Amino acid sequence: MGTLLPLMLVAACEGRPKTETTAPETHRSSGPSLIVLDLSDGAPEVASGSLLALAKHQGTFDQLVERIGEIGKDRDAKGVFVRFGDVSLGLARAAEIGEALEAIRQNGKPVYCHGNGFTNATLYAAARSCSKIYLSPAGEVEAIGIAAEILYLHKLLADELHVNIDILQVGKFKGAEEPLTRDGPSDEARASLVGTLVSMREAWIAGIRGARGDVASAAVEDGPYAPLRAKALKLVDEIGYEDEAREEARKAAGAVRDEVRFGKGAAADDDVGDIVRILAGDEASAPIALVRAVGSISMGHDSSLVGSSDGITEHALARVLARLEKDDSVRAVVLRIDSPGGSALASDLLWHRLMRLRAKKPLVVSIGEMAASGGYYLASAGQVIFAEPGSIVGSMGVVGGKLAFGRSLNQIGVHAETFPANPQPTAGARAAYASMFTEWDDATRARVLESMTAVYDLFLSRVAEGRGSSVDKIAPFAEGRIFSGSQGREHGLIDEIGGLSAAITKARELAKLPADAEVEAVGAPRGIWAALGGVASREAPLSESAARLAAAELPTEALEQAFGRLAPEVSRFAMALMPLAEGERALTVVPFAFVVR
Description:
Elements: E1 33-38, H1 51-55, H2 61-71, E2 77-85, H3 91-106, E3 111-118, H4 120-129, E4 132-141, H5 154-160, E5 164-170, H6 178-181, H7 187-212, H8 214-219, H9 227-232, E6 238-239, H10 242-253, E7 257-262, H11 271-280, E8 288-294, E9 297-298, E10 312-313, H12 314-326, E11 332-339, E12 341-343, H13 344-360, E13 363-372, H14 374-379, E14 384-387, E15 392-394, E16 398-404, H15 406-410, H16 427-431, H17 442-467, H18 471-474, E17 482-484, H19 485-490, E18 496-497, H20 500-510, E19 519-522, H21 528-531, H22 544-550, H23 555-566, H24 568-576, H25 578-581, E20 587-589
Parallel strand pairs: 1-2, 1-7, 2-3, 3-4, 4-6, 8-11, 8-19, 9-10, 11-13, 13-14, 13-15, 14-18
Antiparallel strand pairs: 5-16, 12-20, 15-17
Helix pairs in contact: 2-3, 3-4, 4-7, 12-13, 13-17
C-alpha cells in the first residue's frame, strides 16, 4: 500500500464530455456484437501518471493486445471494427497489431478498418489485418517509404557558438558523437544505419505484398496518395466516412450492437476500485507480472505532483524487481522494453537486478520499437528475447564527454578561471574535469576514454553472460552497430520473432502455467502517486466519477504534452543524454534520434 497522507482531492463539477459514437454503445451484454477498437488516441507502452492522462481513458499497448486476444474466445463477437483516425504508430507495434487482428480475420470474423489517413506503419497494420480498408474522402495515404534523417550540429556549435565539444566513443560504429562533432556521417555510422533500414524495409514490403498483392507493394514508396489513386493502387478498398464503414462492418458481421473494447467509450472499472487504485496502487496478484521499461534510463529523479517525466529510473524499477523476486505468487515475469538507453551505471545496476530475478523465476523479454544500447543491456538478462522484424536492437557501445562553454562566454566578454589547490601545472585541467567552462586536456581525455573502455568491456561481458555466450562471439556484433529485429535473430541477439503476446505465451510455458494464466501489469508509481509514496499500480481506464475526481489537475501536464508533440523523437533521445548533465561521463545510448514509422 502507498503512504496515506492528509490529502483532499476536489472533484470537478463538470460532467465528462460525451463521446461521439455512430451507434448506441453497450458493454459485455449478450447478442451478436461488433467489437470496436479505437486506436485514434494511440496505444502507448505506458500511460502517463498524471491525473489528466487517467481522466482521458487512454489505454496502453498491453491492454490492446489483451483485448484483441479476448475477441477470439468471445462467441458473441462476430466481427471487429478498427478506428485508426490519423494516429501514428511505431512499425514494431503496428506489426503486432496487424498480426493479432489477422488471426481474428483468418478465424472467420470480418475485420473492417477505417482511417482518416494512413502512414507507412498504420497502412502495414491495416493491410495485414483488414477484410476491408476504408479511407476518408478527404484523407491521404502517406505511403512514402522508410528513411531516417539526422541533424548535424557541429558547424553551429563549434564555428558559430564557439562551443568546445569533448565527446568520445567506444565502438567505431557507435556514431553517437557524430551529430556534434561532424557535418555528416562516417562511413561506419552510415553503413550501420542503412543496413538496419534496408532490413526493416524488406519486412515491411513483404508484409504488404503478402496481404495486398504486387500492385500495392510496388506503390508503397511512391506516395502520398489521394483517396481515388490509393484505391486504384489497391492500397485501400473503399472511400467513405467512419459511420458508413462501421455500418458496413456491422452488416458483414451480422451484429445487432457495438461493443467498444479499447479507446474512447470502452467499459470502465468500478468507482471504488478506481479510487483505491489511484490513491495507493495494488500489488501483483496474477501468476505472471508484466513490467514495462519505457524511455531513457537514468539513476532517478524526483516526481512532481503534476505528472512525471517518462523514463526508466534505477531507483524505481529496482524496487519493483526486488519485490517481484520475493513474491512467490508471481511465477514468471515478462519485461517489455522500449528504450534508447541512457545511464551506463543505471543499466548495469538494473541488469544485476534482472539476473537475480531470473535466477528465481522465468524472465522473458519483449522488445517494442527499440531496445538499443542500455535498453539492450537490460534485454540481455532475459532467458528468451522476442522482437518484431521492425524493432531496433543492439548498439552495444559507449559514448561520453561534455560540452564546454568557456570559449562561447569569451565571445561576450565573460571569462572563467580555475584555481586549483594543487600547484602542479596539469592540476587545474584535471580538477576542472566536470566544469562546463573548461575543455579537457589530452591527459584528462585519455583518462575518460580509459574509463569508458572499461564500461564497454563490462557491457559486452554482461551481454555474453545473459545470452549464455562468450565475449568473442558477441564482439563482432558490438562496437555500436544497430540491427533490425530480423538481423538481431540472425546474429543471436534475440531468440524469437514475435510481439508481446508471444512473449506472454512463452512465460506461461516456462512457468508451467495453463494457457489462460492471468497476466497483470505492475510497475513503479508515476506522477502524483509516486510523490505520495505509492508502490505499484495496475493501469486501466477510469470510470466516470473517478475521472471527474482525477480532473482536479490539468494545466502543467497539458503544457508538457503540447511541448512533447513538437519533437517527440528528439526529446525522447535528448532525455537519454541527460545523465551527462548530472555528472555521469559514460552512457550506453543509441546513436541516432529517430523512430521508424
